Amino acid sequence: MPLKHTSLLSLATLLLAAITPSAFAAPAQLPLLPHNVGSGSVAAFLEKVGSVLVSASKLAYEAEWRYATNITSDNQEAATEAELVLNELIISLLAESRTYTGTTPDEKRKLHLLSLYGGVPTSTADQRALSTVQGEMSAIYSTARYKGLALEPDLTELMATEREWDVLLDAWLGWRHVTGPHLKYLYTTFATLSNIGAHDGGFADTGAQWRAGYDMDGAAFISHMEDVWEQVLPLYEQLHCYVRGKLGEVYGEERVDGKDGLIPAHLLGKFRVRQ
Ligand SMILES: *[C@@H]1O[C@H](CO)[C@@H](O)[C@H](O)[C@H]1NC(C)=O
């Protein structure tokens, strides 16, 4: 399951779209950098990345889609195989990309964006294990049932429309019991392998890899997030207070206002409590 590469196609598209004729028109400005693969110019390399990634990721996405819409072990195996092919390509492109530094800000940025896909473990056994564990986690989410109900659409609809406290709480806990304990150990394995992949790609860990994707360095990103959080916090607190008050009118303040000040999650209409 190429879940880690969900935006790979868009990166490839960006690379394709963003390579302007002028990038090809200025070969004289390219520095003589060490490279032993490819045609030698960073512009040509980036063009190659764009085209090969589009076709390779298309195959992997198609296999992933067949699995996501038809969960069988054959389709999982096919999705894993397609991802391994894509991984091999990514690893070789990343190795080649490290021989370039780029001349223009545009080229440097594209090389940086490409490096963000360095979350693939070098070892094929680890790649296979990572892909398998992702596939197994997806399968648990898609096939788990609580009292015969699937997450989509049954339980999702129930959370959105049901108003009875006990029914909501039962669905909330029930769904977690049929998924969480099964996912827990797989997720630990996933996190370990994912960190190995990030490390093999030149990052401290997966968190550092994620934080590198915002056109600023990781430390700046953390402090930027702190600033943004400080800005939205007053609004968040007011909203929280308002929602808690309204739910208190329906369910009784003593049930909604826990000692911790948190709103019970099963009342918020969604399993992921986003709205
Ligand atoms: C689901 O996948 C299997 C292969 O595992 C295939 O034989 C079957 O035709 C597929 N079903 C649908 C509805 O596509």
Automatic annotation (TrEMBL):
<dbReference type="GO" id="GO:0016020">
    <property type="term" value="C:membrane"/>
</dbReference>
<feature type="binding site">
    <location>
        <position position="214"/>
    </location>
    <ligand>
        <name>chloride</name>
    </ligand>
</feature>
<dbReference type="GO" id="GO:0006508">
    <property type="term" value="P:proteolysis"/>
</dbReference>
<dbReference type="GO" id="GO:0008237">
    <property type="term" value="F:metallopeptidase activity"/>
</dbReference>
<feature type="glycosylation site" description="N-linked (GlcNAc...) asparagine">
    <location>
        <position position="70"/>
    </location>
</feature>
<dbReference type="GO" id="GO:0008241">
    <property type="term" value="F:peptidyl-dipeptidase activity"/>
</dbReference>
<comment type="similarity">
    <text>Belongs to the peptidase M2 family.</text>
</comment>
<feature type="signal peptide">
    <location>
        <begin position="1"/>
        <end position="25"/>
    </location>
</feature>
<protein>
    <recommendedName>
        <fullName>Angiotensin-converting enzyme</fullName>
    </recommendedName>
</protein>
<dbReference type="Pfam" id="PF01401">
    <property type="entry name" value="Peptidase_M2"/>
</dbReference>
<keyword id="KW-0325">Glycoprotein</keyword>
<keyword id="KW-1015">Disulfide bond</keyword>
<keyword id="KW-0732">Signal</keyword>
<dbReference type="InterPro" id="IPR001548">
    <property type="entry name" value="Peptidase_M2"/>
</dbReference>
